[in-house]
Amino acid sequence: MRTLVRGGTVVTAVGTFTGDVLSDGETIAAVGVSLDAGSDDQVIDAAGCFVLPGLIDNHTHLDMPFGGTVTADDWESGTRAAAAGGTTTLVDFALQTDGSLLRGLEAWHAKAEGKAHIDYGFHLAVSDASDAAIAEMETAVAEGVTSFKLFMAYKGALMVSDEEMLRVMERARDLGALTQVHAENGDAVDHFVREALAAGDSDPRFHAVTRPPAVEGEATRRAIELATWARAPLFVVHVTCREALEQIQLARDLGLPVYGETCVQYLTLTVDELARPGFEGAKYVCSPPLRPVEHQAPLWAALRNGGLQGCSTDQCSFNYEGEGGKQLGVGDFSKIPNGMPGIETRLPLLWHHGVRTGKLTPSELVAVTSTGPARLFGLAERKGTIAPGLDADLVVLDPEREVTITAATQEMAVDYTPYEGWVVRGAPRTVLSRGEVVYAEGEVRSRPGRGRFLARALHESARPAVAA
Ligand code: URP
Ligand code: ZN
Ligand code: ZN
What average pLDDT score do residues 390-418 get? Predict the structure, then answer.
């Protein structure tokens, strides 16, 4: 089946032009001006709309166990919501399971199998860098899992020591894989949390008080130092503040292979949300925490000027009401499951608050939500831009479509949205995944199980230079 997306403003990371995109089967066959449609071809009129490459969300946690509970969104609802929001590829974090990376991978394949609406890959989070786990990294990479994650926080659960970090970074370097870090000093956080609870400070807002920006800045600097000693490329996930940004910028100015991302919530919400009346602030508990508003401008600037290469969601949804969700932390903020939903709302929020306000051009938005992540995470042979031969993952975005964000109508299974009642202008009208319409006119049209596992290529630092 061929589909012609006709007469839109086609956006890539390098610029825009008014034209057409023709897909044939699963891939893009042609990009041009006044392309012809055959009588059997499906034609999608994109006049007045922007045509973007499908977004990639390189940071999600679907069906993830955490602190004795599990996320509200699994692979069915999570990927359905992603499709509705213009995301056509995601890379989720598989957790080391029973000490084994490969068992973790197996478990994550089982979670996604038969449920995913869109294409997906996995990173592997290493929480115990034992000899056995280090040995398993080679098999994981051979299976297309070419990035690993280390948590410098969540003491007693996922956190690893500096020595473990070095071991993983060195092995990842040798295998051509990318190491990612959640950068917060977990020992310091643990100490501050104990102090706060001992003083009777148990409300959600103390989650942020006990994880100040300096804690993130220090861990970011240390991770960069460790990666430098290991001669390994490094990707810092969910950067929230100036203190961390400065460290990344310093490293990049020295020419080190250090990369980073922020997430939409850090650009659009502030720490003030945690002080909502009653226990409502728990809805906004994530780590690192939301920050004071003055951190937002430097984050937007970093997305614009290449200081950060990605803007993901860190989708990690826990219900607000009922058992097994945010209520676990009533009377003790440290027991609130960490994380927020966002997989469905990334594009409308970035368009409304980024593109419409002039903070990002459409091309800059594409760079940080599709092209940059495709490059860094070994997906660029199939995803990340609009060009012949690549997968026909496309978003027709109507810049005038107004949406009121509300949990009542969202595709996600979680029972709230941090953006309840927000009105945004600019949202997907039609979304194609490998040439198939998966979302149109406000409805998800895909089916669970159509998404495919993506074996990802090695990180670019591992690939040979092209001889002159
Ligand atoms: O609060 C968050 N971010 N939860 C998800 C796990 C993580 O740290 O990425
Ligand atoms: Zn994290
Ligand atoms: Zn995360």
Answer: 98
Ligand 1, from 70, 284, 313, 314: best to mutate by most atoms within 8 Å of Cβ?
314
Sequence-distant (6+) residues with CB within 8 A of 98 are none
- Give phi and psi for 179, each to the nearest 5: -100, 135
Gap between the Cα atoms of 455 and 145, Å rounded: 7
**Closest residue (by CA) to atom 8 of ligand 1?**
287
Q: Does this model's pTM top 0.85?
A: yes
Contact 178, 172 (CB under 8 A): yes
* Residue of the CA atom closest to atom 5 of ligand 1: 339
Q: What percent of the chain shows pLDDT beyond 90?
A: 97
Note the pLDDT tens digit of each residue in 77-128. Answer: 999 999 999 999 999 999 999 999 999 999 999 999 999 999 999 999 999 9
Question: Residue 35: how many CA atoms within 13 Å on its side-chain side?
Answer: 26
CA distances from 51 to 296, 307, 315, 363 (A): 27, 26, 24, 11
The torsion region of residue 255 among left (phi > 0), alpha (psi -120 to 50) and beta comes to left
For residue 107, with 0-12 CB atoms within 10 Å meaning exposed, 13-18 middle and 19 or more buried, which class applies? middle
CA of 378 to the centre of ligand 1 (A): 23
Residue 322 vs residues 81, 217, 290: alpha-carbon distances, Å: 22, 35, 24
Three state DSSP letters for 6-38:
EEEEEEECCEEEEEEEEEECCEEEEEECCCCCC
> Token pair 């400070």 is at which residue?
201
Query: CA nearest 309: which of 318, 317, 319, 299?
Result: 299
Give the list of residues 6+ apart from residue 408 with CB closer than 8 angstroms, or none: none
For the chain, how many residues are written? Answer: 468
Kindly state the DSSP code that residue 98 receives in the 8-state scheme.
T
> pLDDT by residue (tens digit) across 191-227?
999 999 999 999 999 999 999 999 999 999 999 999 9
